Amino acid sequence: MTWIKVLDATALPEGERKVVKLEDHDILLAHAQGEIYAMLNACPHMKLSLRKGEITEDETIVCPFHRSAFDLHTGAVKVWTPWPPMVGKLMGKVASERPLRVFATKVEDGSIWIEIEA
Ligand code: FES
Questions:
Q1: CA–CA separation, 99 vs 101, rounded Å?
Q2: How far does residue 110's CA lie from ligand 1's centre (Å)?
Q3: Residue 69: is it exposed, middle or buried by C-beta count within 10 angstroms (0-12/13-18/19+)?
Q4: Hey, where are the domains in the chain?
Q5: Beta bridge partners of 79
Q6: Per-residue DSSP letters for 4-60?
Q7: In this structure, what DSSP letter does residue 110 have?
Q8: CB 47 within 8 A of CB 39
Q9: Angle, alpha carbons 66-101-12 (nearest 5°)
Q10: Edge-to-edge, what's the strand order for the sheet holding 17-22?
Q11: Ligand 1 binding pocket includes 28 (Cβ within 6 Å)
């Protein structure tokens, strides 16, 4: 594992989100409730952007499309495609349930860093 500098910390004040490119991936950075979270900006269900997903008080991000919910520290699925009612469960079958890829973060030397596989 290695740490990569991705953004100046001042570019991501509380309440903000930014997508940064890292190799071939779009990484979503979110500053919420005093924490900086980093995750792949692709919902595991249909690869749609999580940028507008709700971040809840229990450190979960909820996909804005079919409302799958993922733990922001582990990426574990909390709920899989509950939306829209009835249809959501059927839509969930287009892809098998899988976790969101998340990354550890730190702020050091005025920058945000994320930990990735070397
Ligand atoms: S794209 Fe996220 S739950 Fe369907």
A1: 6
A2: 34
A3: buried
A4: 2-116
A5: 69
A6: EEEEEGGGS-TT-EEEEEETTEEEEEEEETTEEEEEESS-TTT----TT-EE-TTSE
A7: T
A8: no
A9: 90
A10: 17-22, 25-32, 35-40, 102-103
A11: no
For domain 2-116, the question of CATH label 3.10.580.10 is answered with no
Ligand 1 centroid to 91 CA: how many Å?
9
11 lines ligand 1 (CB under 6 A): no
Residue-by-residue DSSP string for 67-81: --EEETTT--EEE--
> Has this prediction a pTM greater than 0.90?
yes
CB 63 less than 6 A from any atom of ligand 1? yes
pLDDT along the chain (118 residues), means of 10: 96 97 94 97 97 97 97 97 87 89 97 92
Residue 35's pLDDT is what?
Answer: 96
Per residue in 49-82, pLDDT (tens digit) is: 999 999 999 999 999 999 999 999 999 999 999 9
